[in-house]
Task: inverse folding
């Protein structure tokens, strides 16, 4: 087990499965103490059990990040347990279903719900834990997407908005020594990423990459471990692409 994060406190939202679970296990493998948050308690318990098998400590918290009062209640619990927070991974988000099929006719309520989770919640949680992050000082990683650079769906638009929010967060939190960076994954070989995508369309999109290889959870987790570590202490306000050079990120906003 590496020890870059030995006894560091790392909070991962959306950690009941998928990439969030991957982040939790990656930091746990390097000695971190994990704070896990999600709406899915059963998934959180599975992730916590995996961490215990690694010998890592983890607490689980059911939180709906669309509800501001739940964010503040969760943050108050974290503050009581941990006077210092070293890493905040804002991984939770809506990515599949109606949010990924377009943006016409959604109506205000759905737009506000999507934006609340994908853009505003990362800021609200970081603000609520500002003092604990400053005690490190800590690092924040927001999860963007390749889709933020080709925002033809509500999902892409929310992630493009998150990119702008990340700039504001980096500017504001930097005064306290807190670094804020984002990761924009490309096509990842995971069941969730392939959900609803026809195999031939997936193959076409993957063929556009500059590197002829498949990306996986470990590629994103390893990048996150670097950005959260002291090795990246002079890096902030970056959106780091992990997409095998996919040209869909050619759009700039």
Result:
């Amino acid at each position: 087990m590496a020890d870059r994060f030995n006894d560091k406190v790392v909070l991962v939202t959306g950690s009941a499965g998928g990439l969030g679970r991957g982040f939790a296990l990656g930091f746990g493998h390097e000695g971190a103490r994990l704070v896990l948050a999600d709406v899915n308690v059963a998934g959180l318990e599975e992730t916590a059990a995996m961490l215990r098998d690694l010998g890592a400590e983890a607490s689980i918290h059911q939180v709906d990040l669309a509800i501001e009062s739940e964010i503040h209640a969760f943050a108050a619990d974290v503050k009581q347990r941990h006077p210092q927070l070293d890493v905040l991974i804002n991984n939770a988000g809506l990515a599949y279903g109606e949010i990924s099929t377009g943006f016409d006719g959604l109506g205000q309520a759905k737009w506000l719900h999507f934006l609340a989770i994908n853009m505003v919640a990362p800021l609200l949680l970081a603000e609520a834990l500002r003092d604990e992050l400053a005690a490190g000082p800590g690092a924040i990683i927001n999860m963007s997407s390749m889709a933020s650079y080709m925002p033809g769906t509500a999902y892409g638009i929310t992630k493009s908005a998150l990119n702008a929010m990340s700039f504001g967060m980096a500017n504001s939190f930097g005064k306290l020594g807190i670094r804020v960076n984002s990761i924009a994954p490309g096509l990842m070989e995971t069941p969730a990423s392939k959900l609803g995508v026809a195999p031939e369309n997936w193959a076409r999109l993957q063929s556009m990459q500059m590197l002829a290889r498949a990306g996986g959870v470990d590629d994103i987790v390893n990048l996150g471990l670097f950005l959260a570590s002291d090795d990246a202490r002079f890096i902030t306000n970056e959106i780091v692409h992990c997409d095998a050079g996919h040209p869909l990120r050619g759009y700039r906003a």
Remarks:
- The chain has a mean pLDDT of 91.
